[in-house]
Amino acid sequence: MKLHYSPASPYSTKARMAAHYAGVAVENVLTDTTSNPPDLIASNPLGKIPTLVLDDGRAIYDSSVITRFLDRESGGKLMPRNAEKRLDAEILEALCDGICDSLLAVVYEKRFHPPEKVHQPWIDRQWEKVSRGLDHLEAHLPKIGTRLHAGHFALAAMLRYIELRFEGEWQAGRPKLAKWPKKFEKHFPDYSLFKA
Ligand SMILES: N[C@@H](CCC(=O)N[C@@H](CS)C(=O)NCC(=O)O)C(=O)O
Asked: Hey, whose CA ends up nearest to atom 14 of ligand 1?
């Protein structure tokens, strides 16, 4: 199967790390969404990455559907079996993906508008969501037990992305969160392979 991805895309990083951890072999296809590549559009009308294309041609998106698919493919390596813990992992994944949605909204607002059309109140609104999300994570950092799950990969990918685009702008007042990537790397030494 093929995974359309870009190294900077946090949802792609999550999916790639999850596939690696789960031991599911995927061929990574570097994809630039801005040029609307026909093979991506043919697979995913939304033209977004990550998109996982199976050998029979079926395409899977978005990234949380991909992590659930990889979980089933690997016999449950990406989600806790316990229902309560699984729900916690799914909510963590949704929160981290949602923070990425807001970060991307800020990046795209600036990237796709001329400076005089950039709407600062919209950026401020997105930053409020990011700040609340980060504060929530600081207060409720997920434990890392014997196994990692999709929520951990979502958090690792989000922190990588926020540091890539907003370097040094998110750590103040969040010491535990700032240290989390180092902790994560002890459990997933290949984290450095997924740098943008
Ligand atoms: N909810 C989607 C979001 C995917 C997404 O927005 N990906 C970005 C790259 S990080 C993208 O493809 N942007 C191109 C576009 O929106 O046209 C997911 O979790 O997969």
From this structure: 48
